[in-house]
Design brief:
The complex is a heterotrimer of chains A (291), B (276) and C (333). Chain A has 13 helices and two strands; from the N terminus they run H-E-E-H-H-H-H-H-H-H-H-H-H-H-H. Chain A is mainly α and 291 residues long. The longest helix of chain C is centred in the middle third of the chain and has 18 residues. Classes of the chains: A mainly alpha (291), B mainly alpha (276), C alpha+beta (333). Chains in contact: A-B, A-C, B-C. Chains A and B meet through helix 1, helix 3, helix 4, helix 5 and helix 8 of A and helix 1, helix 4, helix 5, helix 6 and helix 7 of B.
């Protein structure tokens, strides 16, 4: 092509707006967060900000609330990952089989992901988990047991179940897509080689799914680290701190206690956590990219 | 022998699959059922499954008493606005990276991906303060901008993967046929890119509609979309389950429909093309 | 009207030279085939002529005008791609007429020309269909139709028959040859299949590793190959090459004898060997014979000679048809 250099310059101009915008979006607010995290800054005493270096980080990390929030975050993410990946594989395997009415079942399985988090949260809290009139209460009473007061007694577990329900379709859909891309001929070759159904699963299906499972784990982790709306709408972080994760802790410090400095430090901690996961995900996606 | 086995295993699979699907879907189903009950029926113990007095009064109340439409309008403006903004910026970028790649293209794409990894809570403080000080809190424009920035990496990536799938030799054929760059873009590339662009639009509308971090923190009354509207039902206020269900059904119905059509796009968009 | 000349043409990708100093002339109205193994640069050369690849050095002239700096649209050439590259969102009519539309012709004239081209290629019943509704052979005709309707100075074909099944390939080969002969347009045709080259070309350009190994008519290349590469590439089954004593005794480093120029006998002959494989294709029998000290030779035998695997056979090359090559692989005449 004549004028290849010309095309390349045009290319750079076209990409520039996105790059500049994202760059500003990354640098400006993040930079400000870092700056605030080094100040003693409370919205209730405006104008008395002072530079205190890394003390906020000290307070934040030493605060028992932080440790609780971190544990809650890890428990939440880990449990949801475990539930969604294991169940996701099982449901995907089931949906990969031939059966009648696949389209409708698919719709039913996928639906929870498209329900907005506030709706999911309130439906679970009120219609299902309410200790008196909720459906779960009725079912437990049918078996002669006392109903669980979910959000009072096992709040974190309740949140975990709710979030896992929301994300199960995501895992299922991705794993099903990966399953369906498995070459039928490979399975046939394995059958010729004498492999039974279980061996075929272990040696052919699982390795093929390994990559998709990794993607599911990494993508879900990125989003699960910042679960917010579900907690906001059901427990407000409580009782006490039992359902406070890092995201909610930062929010509470910033907009409820007006401690800008402390909240900023917390925000940076959240960013660091996410970045650790991000490094792995970027590498994985990069391997797939042929630019 | 093989044919027999497959029919009976098909039946078993059907029963199992429908059971699983039903269990997963049940909360939504229960919510929709509740929306047609009176508040008393909604609270009834034991719960009433199908035999109750079906009424649509909740839908009426939700509309008349609590400005459902105002919030729905905000959701629509937010979704479409941020998507439109996203397309304007992302289409040229994705085109350039797909058809005129340079040595930096791959690095740029990876970097864009990494910006999506940043947890919103990390910049909650400055964004909130910036918005407060520039009177952008509770404005539709401010929210559209934030949503646009948050989803820009996904839009660019999705468009990029779709553009890359357009066979290069069809574009070359148009050049042999005498098309200038402009005509090539208009007559050949754009029509072939339309499905990909439509898919990206679909996914982005869904993501923006359901977004529940910035919408909850940056809006109160005027710009509050449906996520916020539903959240306002979270304070215990006595008997309101049926109304909550009606409001919720209205809030999620459009997205459930859109979502069903966008499953493939969901997989591609949220895994950045790693699973296709 | 359509004379294409390449002078000192070369192309490098970074430090690698893909095309090294190619000089050739394609006379107006002739059918020239670029042939060679994978990676020899034949498609790259074609794309450089088309304008789809930049030229690193040298001149490309069409009717005397240097076109190296011209974009494809201005070179007045058409190309038929290996994958056909049809526009999926346009009908057959739209596909064929697109180039005319780009040239700004009025609609009635476009319609007239498209109908004429479709008639030649038996596409008239399919004019309103989309490419995805057509078979492979039909799509290929649409690609050809798109190329001929613009009445360009030259047709460029990039391995157009590779995606067709064997029977269709033979049929299309004949049709393309007839079409070209009727229209009289200069044609450059790229293929890796030497049978296509031999049957369709007025002139063949054999390419090897980015350089021209030999240019000539099909029979010239068959009878008088200039070097080992061309000798071994043209002709199927491949020419037999023998080094060592039989070559030295004839004053060469390597001698070559085509399977059809060696006689096989059960009783007497110059070289003795054992039949390893016997291929009976009906009209002929091909014997793969292990000859001691010389390796495996391929021989075309007449049907009457019933020699099976393991039998002893004597081979005699026709002295008039032996090719001699020196230490550099060049033919000695």
């Amino acid at each position: 092509m004549a004028a290849t250099a010309q095309i390349r310059t045009v290319g750079r101009i076209l990409v520039a707006p996105s790059v500049i915008l994202l760059f500003l979006w990354m640098i400006v607010p993040l930079g400000m967060t870092i700056w605030f995290s080094l100040l003693r800054y409370n919205l209730l005493d405006p104008g008395t900000e002072s530079f205190i270096g890394l003390k906020n980080y000290g307070y934040f990390l030493a605060d028992p609330a932080f440790f609780t929030a971190l544990t809650n975050t890890l428990v939440l993410v880990g449990s949801v990952l475990g539930i969604t990946v294991v169940l996701g594989i099982l449901v995907a395997l089931l949906m990969d089989q031939p059966f009648f009415g696949r389209a409708i079942v698919r719709l039913m399985v996928i639906a929870p992901f498209f329900v907005m988090p506030t709706v999911s949260a309130l439906v679970w809290k009120n219609l299902l988990m309410h200790p008196v009139s909720g459906l779960f209460a009725w079912i437990t009473r049918l078996f002669g047991l006392t109903p669980v007061d979910w959000f009072a007694d096992v709040p974190l577990l309740s949140i975990i179940l709710l979030v896992a329900w929301q994300w199960l379709p995501f895992a299922t859909l991705i794993l099903l897509t990966a399953l369906q891309s498995l070459d039928e001929e490979q399975k046939d070759a394995a059958k010729m080689d004498g492999a039974g159904a279980i061996s075929r699963f272990i040696y052919i299906v699982v390795p093929h799914l390994a990559r998709a499972i990794t993607v599911v784990i990494l993508m879900e982790t990125i989003f699960l680290l910042t679960v917010f709306a579900e907690i906001f709408v059901t427990t407000g972080g409580g009782p006490g701190l039992q359902t406070t994760n890092i995201a909610f802790l930062v929010y509470a410090q910033a907009l409820l206690q007006y401690d800008i400095g402390g909240a900023s430090a917390g925000g940076i901690v959240a960013v660091v956590l996410a970045n650790i996961v991000a490094i792995f995900l970027v590498r994985l996606v990069g391997k797939n990219l042929e630019a | 022998m093989a044919i027999q086995a497959s029919t009976s295993s098909k039946v078993v699979a059907t029963v199992a699959a429908w059971l699983v699907g039903f269990v997963i879907f049940f909360p939504i189903l229960w919510m929709v059922l509740t929306s047609f009950k009176s508040e008393l029926d909604a609270f009834a113990i034991p719960p009433k499954f199908l035999f109750f007095h079906w009424t649509t009064e909740n839908y009426g109340i939700v509309q008349s008493r609590s400005d459902y439409f105002g919030h729905a309008l905000n959701s629509i403006i937010l979704s479409f606005g941020s998507t439109l903004l996203g397309l304007i910026v992302a289409i040229p970028a994705a085109w350039a990276m797909a058809f005129a790649p340079s040595k930096r293209t791959r690095g740029t794409l990876m970097w864009m991906l990494s910006t999506k990894m940043m947890p919103p809570v990390g910049v909650l403080v400055p964004i909130y303060l910036l918005f407060r000080d520039s009177n952008l809190l509770d404005t539709r424009g401010g929210l559209i901008f934030i949503e646009f920035m948050g989803n820009l990496p996904i839009i660019v990536w999705m468009l990029y993967t779709y553009f890359k799938e357009i066979p290069k030799d069809i574009l070359e054929a148009s050049r042999m046929d005498g098309a200038t760059i402009g005509k090539e873009l208009f007559y050949v590339l754009a029509p072939m890119a339309v499905p990909g662009i439509a898919s990206t639009i679909l996914l982005n509308i869904i993501l923006a509609w359901n977004e529940a971090f910035w919408t909850l923190n940056l809006t109160t009354v005027h710009a509050a979309p449906l996520t916020m509207f539903i959240a306002s039902y979270s304070s215990p206020e006595g008997l309101f389950w049926a109304k909550l269900s009606a409001a919720s059904t209205l809030a999620i119905a459009p997205i459930l429909v859109l979502g069903w059509f966008s499953q493939k796009q969901l997989v591609r968009g949220l895994t950045f093309g790693a699973v296709k | 009207m359509g004379k294409i000349e390449l002078v000192g043409v070369q192309k490098s990708f970074g430090a690698t030279d893909v095309i090294k100093d190619v000089n050739l002339t394609v006379e107006d109205g002739t059918f020239v085939v670029f042939v060679g193994p994978s990676g020899c640069g034949k498609s790259t050369l074609l794309r450089m002529i088309a304008g789809l690849e930049d030229v690193s050095g040298g001149i490309i002239r069409i009717d005397g005008l240097d076109v190296v700096k011209l974009p494809p649209a201005k070179r007045s050439l058409s190309m038929v791609f290996q994958s056909y590259a049809l526009y999926p969102h346009m009908s057959v009519r739209g596909n064929i007429g697109f180039g005319l539309k780009m040239a700004g012709l009025p609609k009635p004239e476009i319609a007239r020309k498209v109908d004429a081209a479709a008639a030649i290629l038996n596409l008239t019943p399919y004019l309103d269909r989309r490419p995805r509704e057509l078979s492979g052979g039909q799509r290929q005709r649409v690609a050809i139709g798109r190329a001929i309707v613009r009445e360009p100075k030259g047709f460029l074909f990039d391995e157009p028959l590779s995606n067709l099944d064997a029977a269709l390939r033979v049929q299309m080969r004949i049709e393309i040859a007839k079409l070209q002969s009727t229209l009289g347009t200069t044609t450059i045709y790229v293929t890796h299949d030497q049978v296509e080259a031999m049957t369709m070309a007025d002139k063949i350009v054999v390419l090897n590793a980015g350089q021209v190994a030999q240019v000539g008519s099909p029979l010239e290349l068959y009878d008088r190959p200039d070097n080992l590469f061309v000798a071994g590439f043209i002709g199927s089954p491949k020419m037999n090459f023998v080094t060592g004593n039989p070559a030295a005794s004839r004053g060469a480093t390597t001698i070559g004898a085509r399977p059809e120029h060696i006689t096989a006998s059960a009783t007497s002959g110059e070289w003795q060997g054992t039949v390893a494989v016997a291929e009976h294709v009906g009209s002929d029998t091909f014997l793969y014979v292990d000859v001691e000290g010389m390796g495996e030779l391929t021989v075309r035998a007449i049907g009457e000679l019933r020699l099976e695997v393991g039998s002893k056979v004597f081979l005699t090359p026709d002295p008039a048809r032996i090719h001699r090559f020196d230490a550099n692989g060049k033919a000695m005449r």
